């Protein structure tokens, strides 16, 4: 799946990838956080990071993990797999929203474009990364996603249907996502000031600033590994599907 690193163009806007990987993996049921579980003989996080390492449009990477896992991540992921673009491994927070903010702080405002990608979405190609970065050249905020295939119903606390939504207007959101540094930092500061802690992805925060968020179609392969079944599917995809 991995390809050789490509030569960088002579000039480009500086782009950093922030990879939140601070989850505990409760639904996976293992004794290690899911981002460190083996997939096709390598840790999930290492597989996720490699396309970013090889993609010339990405200048640097920051990994956000649990404080207790920083040393392990540095030694067994970054050093072992020679991920030279990873400039920092920093501690995350209680929520994904906090972890991304800590990663953003660690970038020190040195990169204009911020790409966010879940550490447990390992079936991602360099082309997926290039597409989101290219879209970010003309749009301030871009996310990837897939149109909903199933009928979507909203329910109440007693599991009674409230309404059925028009699936033609509904998309299932993925990562990677790309934002301008100043926009994303302002969005996180606004969330803190207003005590808003419910964001499940960064585009929710940016939307609250009134910034239009563009959606581009993602990949069916780009699954998030959350359960043992996801792990089996990711194993199959890595073995049988080429970039």
Detailed description of the structure:
The protein has 243 residues and is α/β, with parallel strands linked by helices. It has one domain: Spore Coat Polysaccharide Biosynthesis Protein SpsA, Chain A, CATH 3.90.550. Helices cover 30% and strands 23% of the residues. It has 7 helices and 11 strands. The strands form 3 sheets. Strands 5-4-1-6-10-7-11 form a 7-stranded mixed β-sheet, sandwiched between helices. Helix 2 links the parallel strand 4 and strand 5. Helix 3 crosses helix 5. The longest helix has 13 residues. The protein is globular and about 50 Å long. About 2% of the residues have low confidence.
Structure described in brief:
The chain is 30% helix and 23% strand. It is an alpha/beta fold and 243 residues long.
Assign a percent range to the helix content.
Answer: 25-40%
Distance between the termini: 7 Å
Our estimate of the beta-strand percent is 15-25%
Order of helices and strands: EEEHEHEHEHEEEEHHEH
Q: Which CATH architecture would you pick? A: Alpha-Beta Complex
Category by helix and strand content: alpha/beta
Q: Largest beta sheet, briefly? A: 7 strands, mixed
Assembly category = single chain
Number of domains: 1
Features:
single chain, 7 helices, 243 residues, alpha/beta, seven-stranded mixed sheet, Spore Coat Polysaccharide Biosynthesis Protein SpsA, Chain A
Topology readout:
Elements: E1 15-21, E2 38-39, E3 42-43, H1 44-54, E4 60-65, H2 70-79, E5 86-91, H3 96-106, E6 113-116, H4 126-135, E7 141-147, E8 152-155, E9 161-165, E10 171-180, H5 181-193, H6 202-207, E11 214-217, H7 228-240
Helix pairs in contact: 3-5
